[in-house]
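Reproducibility note. Readers wishing to regenerate the assembly model reported in the main text can use the exact inputs given here. Chain order matters: entities are listed in the order in which they were concatenated for prediction.
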Amino acid sequence: MGDLRTFIGAFFLIIGALLTAIPEARAPLTANPVNLYAGMSMLAFGAIMLWMGLRARRHP
Amino acid sequence: MTLSPIDYLILALYFAFVLGIGLVMRRRIHSSEDFLTSHHSIPVWITSLAFIAANLGAQEVMGMCASGAKYGLMTAHFYWIGAVPAMLFVGVFMMPFYYGSRARSVPEYLKLRFDEKTRALNACSFAVMTVFSSGISMYALGRLFQTLLGWSFTGSVVLSAAIVLAYTFLGGLTSAIYNEVLQFFLIVLGFAPLSILAVEKAGGWSGLSARLPAVMTHIWRYAGDSSANPMGVEAFGLIAGLGFVLSFGYWCTDFLVVQRAMAADSMSTARRTPLIAAFPKMIMPAIVIVPGIAAAALTEMHLGYTLPMKAGVPDYDQALTSLMAQFYPAGLLGVGLTALMASFMSGMAGNVTAFNTVFTYDLYQNYIRRSAPDTHYLRVARWTTVGGVALSIGAAYLAQHYNNIMDVLQLVFSFVNAPLFATFLLGMFWRRATGDGAFSGLLSGTAAAALVHGMTEAEGKGGWIGVWHHFPSTMAQNFWMAIFAWSSCFTITILVSLATAPRPAGQLRGLVYGLTEVPSQRGEAWFRRPGILACVVVALLIVLNLVFR
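Running the prediction on these inputs yields the following structure tokens for the assembly.
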């Protein structure tokens, strides 16, 4: 049975990786690489969720 | 607004994940209870996040942002004196009766506590309301994506409905709840950057406060007089109307949210569900209201952003999407739009799963086929999902063609909802309350709400009987309508109950205060005790109210 944290972790890892892959994209009112910052936050969040999900699977 | 291929890729990934969760959850469904109530098996962190996500529909997200731009930080009252205190009340005081009675739905609790007619009134009005709420959500989604991206109305409605149908049909309530948690994180991570970017552009909170009238950044300072604030509401109307009647009425009696807590795996976790949910709920204004306030400030600052106009006045409803268009580059824009789609779908799925349970258990099993094998009810529940989604699509098209009908329906729903909290309060805490008292109280409360609306006028609304009083805003009118409805229901329920025969105490065990054993908290860690959790939330609420007073 899939742990929900594994799903959430995998989802945000993929989205985070996609965002960090295009740091140069800019919006009309943003000068900073916001994709990079948001992507890295999502990678970190996704990694924590995935780790918690896998840990729960090993020690149910 | 134009999307890039990466934005479409993010949207497609989201659809794949929600369907994947539905497919995995399908393996857990063996009975109608698995499908409709999750068989009381969900851990507390999941039920807590689903508890707030089910209410985090797109109308909430976009509406709160719009209110932030129009009314300022006073909009936070919907959270800090509205939702959060009500969530504490349901967790500490009401959940022992809901969960302890083993009722499968809120209408079923009414049947156990009062009688069949009170259950039927609540079940029928709730079933109709959920279908129309889901339909209004679909209509709003179709209109938004049509205006924003040029997508076809039918295409947007059918796509979202098909995905919601697929994962709720496959995995029932568990699938809806699991997806709501994914949707919650997506909404938070998708909209939080917008709040940060917009406030930073406006010069931080101090810069933003300096550009706006002080009434936009304080919640209590201008609440003494209804003419001093843009909401047109004074402190009593706010506390009694919004804080007590409307918020307690919604969070404590609406099956859509209560169902999430009732899916918890024990009484202890059911009680903690709304209390834990109160922590993230308390900080939601930073994500959904603050961007709206920043939009108002940026408009004053002439930095390249202005609130869109409609017929010569600011179109506050577009505050969120216009900010996204200016602050989100390709990629993050896809995340933001996917979060918007997620919030629409979470609202729809919440309504569909609640409709399922009420229709199958309270209407079908009770009035159509009473004693059938469980596999029959599971089949009925699955087909009710299909029927619920189909009816919602019908309601969405009705809204498209007859917008006024939907306004009238929403008004009628507010008449029905306003008095409900009085019925539950008396039912749970006064053993003398009777079924006849509850039923007549509900009817009188609904009539009182309709009368107040018919005899008062605000912004051109109401006054269809005659204008006896003028309110400065429709919000003030709604709050006072709720106060009159609640008071009428409370008074009539007491009077009729005293004139009718009460049920024997033996029949009320597990349903009423004083006849229900509240589980002992001894031996529980302090952070698992509902009373202590509630005290921590109250302390934080006081701090927030003082800081932003």
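We highlight two features of this model. The interface with chain A takes residues 6, 9-10, 13-14, 17, 20-21, 24, 27-28, 46, 178, 181-182, 185, 189, 193, 197, 201, 303-305, 325-333, 335 of chain B (CB under 8 Å). Chain B has a mean pLDDT of 88.
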